[in-house]
């Protein structure tokens, strides 16, 4: 007991000596800037999570989707868009282009409305572009293309509000706001996505996260609209086939009456089973509007990913780099890859024309098999090209940082996940049909989906590795090993982007006309990601093609990395 008391008194004396060396006037966590930044980001992230969940529930809720609630639902859409538009107005007038705002403050100070202290407090500094954002050229070009085509869809909806049956004025406001939101996003992502938002700014952080929620909601709602349109299209096709069967088995008079009745029902308004909330352009423009809707889905995914990167790196201080004003491309060692890929491109368009011919000749099964054979050939050739690129580029050197940005890798993984879900759904449906002993199931489905899923996984690994390779030796600079194959892969992925776009609109290869609602939901959510994966893969491969063999850029980076290691 005596030893214990002595030990306790010794520890107490040591603790007293230690506490005497600690500073007395440290700021509390409420006044710590890092704590404030963490708390602000946590609150805005929680707001985005709640708003996204609520928006998703509203989209799938039978109550909100009923005809009795179409005005309330549209008001919700207008509210989502209007908050985002107000934020972009603030972003452009206060943060990106503060000249007008600062001029107004100086004018108010000159006429003695504001004090000098207030003007200094509210004066906005010049914007700093040190963030990552949509860093690569090809990603910005993609946002420009997809944003333009998406704006065309919203413009068509505005026109259709006044075409034939006029809609409620709230729909006009909704689609005008959707058009403005898409257009403002497109300009921001192309020109100002590298902006470094001010630190601990509630409005900047809140607005950026609200835009993420709006883009996720737009992506989900458009996927559901596409699913409804496909379901209506299949129903209409089945009714037409039934009418053809009745024509062959009934008298001419009765057949004529039935045909006239169905035709008047379908073409009276052009909106087959479309409710008041549905996109009219899907039922008026058909496949063209379906393509525009797909591009808008891709644009929403890109925007949400870029906004997340901007929000994540908000307030981080980085050395500002001078903006590039010129872009140069070294086209040496590319001709063989281009012309070899053009052969596959021509074959793909021939198979698409064959699909239309067989489909119009009432042979849909043969038409789908043509698409399956063409896809299997494309995946096999592209897979072999990826393995060849691995072998050829083994001579290059590894560097610390990738050519692209973090957002490129995030978008690549998102697209890869969509491809895996799409292929897994197709394989599961094939197994389900085989267990049910459905006639007409072909083993071509398994072969195509297996080659496809292997190809996307191997290609994704290759892109992640190759984006960190470079040419530093004299022999690599002279021979440029693998550049022909990279050129071939770029054109092949552009080809597959066109092919998958056609597939999601017209073809049903690997998927039966009638399937459970779970499979239909998985298909309609993953099919836009499939198209997006091919576009983004071609953009990433183009970045590798541009930077891996750039001698000047590689030697500058090599010196910087050697200095960093030292």
From TrEMBL:
RNA-binding is among the record's keywords: no
Domain of life: Eukaryota
Membrane spanning stretches: 38-58, 70-92, 99-117, 137-163, 175-195, 207-229, 288-310, 331-358, 370-390, 444-465, 485-502, 514-533
Lipid bilayer topology: Multi-pass membrane protein
PANTHER family: OTOPETRIN-LIKE (PTHR21522:SF31), PROTON CHANNEL OTOP (PTHR21522)
Family in the record: Belongs to the otopetrin family.
Protein name: Otopetrin-2
């Amino acid at each position: 007991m005596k030893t214990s008391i002595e030990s306790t008194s010794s520890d107490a004396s040591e603790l007293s000596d230690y506490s005497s060396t600690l500073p007395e006037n440290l700021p509390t966590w409420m006044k710590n800037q890092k704590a404030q930044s963490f708390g602000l980001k946590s609150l805005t992230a929680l707001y985005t999570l709640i708003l996204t969940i609520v928006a998703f529930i509203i989209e799938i809720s039978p109550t909100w989707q009923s005809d009795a609630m179409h005005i309330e639902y549209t008001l919700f859409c207008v509210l989502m868009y209007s908050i985002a538009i107000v934020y972009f107005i603030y972003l452009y007038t206060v943060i990106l282009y503060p000249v007008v705002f600062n001029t107004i403050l100086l004018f108010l100070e000159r006429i003695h409305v504001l004090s000098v202290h207030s003007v200094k407090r509210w004066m906005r500094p010049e914007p700093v572009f040190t963030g990552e954002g949509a860093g690569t050229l090809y990603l910005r070009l993609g946002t420009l293309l997809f944003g333009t085509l998406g704006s065309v869809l919203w413009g068509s909806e505005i026109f259709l509000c006044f075409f034939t049956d006029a809609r409620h004025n709230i729909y006009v406001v909704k689609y005008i706001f959707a058009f403005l939101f898409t257009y403002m996003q497109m300009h921001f992502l192309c020109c100002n996505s590298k902006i470094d938002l001010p630190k601990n700014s509630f409005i900047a952080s809140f607005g950026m996260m609200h835009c993420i929620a709006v883009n996720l909601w737009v992506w989900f709602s458009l996927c559901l609209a596409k699913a409804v349109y496909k379901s209506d299209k299949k129903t209409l096709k089945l009714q037409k086939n039934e009418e053809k069967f009745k024509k062959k088995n009934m008298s001419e008079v009765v057949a004529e009456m039935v045909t006239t009745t169905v035709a008047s029902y379908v073409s009276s308004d052009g909106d087959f089973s479309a409710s008041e909330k549905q996109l009219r352009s899907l039922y008026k423009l058909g496949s063209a509007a379906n393509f525009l809707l797909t591009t808008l889905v891709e644009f929403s995914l890109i925007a949400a990913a870029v906004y997340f990167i901007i929000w994540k790196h908000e307030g981080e201080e980085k050395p500002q780099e001078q903006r590039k004003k010129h872009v140069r491309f070294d086209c040496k060692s590319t001709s063989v890859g281009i012309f070899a890929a053009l052969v596959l491109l021509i074959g793909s368009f021939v198979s698409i024309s064959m699909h239309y011919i067989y489909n119009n000749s009432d042979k849909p099964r043969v038409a789908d098999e043509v698409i399956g054979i063409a896809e299997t050939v494309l995946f096999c050739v592209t897979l072999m090209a990826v393995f060849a690129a691995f072998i050829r580029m083994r001579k290059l050197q590894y560097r610390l940082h990738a050519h692209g940005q973090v957002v490129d890798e995030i978008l690549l993984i998102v697209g890869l996940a969509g491809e895996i879900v799409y292929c897994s759904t197709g394989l599961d449906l094939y197994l389900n049909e085989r267990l049910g002993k459905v006639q007409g199931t072909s083993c071509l489905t398994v072969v195509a989906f297996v080659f496809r899923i292997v190809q996307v996984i191997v290609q994704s690994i290759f892109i992640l590795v190759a984006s960190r390779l470079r040419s530093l030796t004299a022999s690599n600079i002279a021979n440029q090993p693998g550049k022909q194959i990279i050129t071939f892969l770029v054109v092949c992925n552009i080809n597959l982007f066109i092919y998958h776009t056609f597939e999601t609109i017209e073809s049903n290869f690997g998927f039966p006309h009638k399937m459970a609602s779970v499979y239909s939901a998985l298909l309609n959510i993953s099919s836009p990601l499939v198209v997006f994966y091919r576009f983004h893969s071609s953009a990433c491969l183009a970045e590798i093609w541009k930077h891996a063999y750039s001698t000047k850029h590689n030697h500058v980076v090599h010196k910087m990395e050697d200095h960093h290691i030292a």
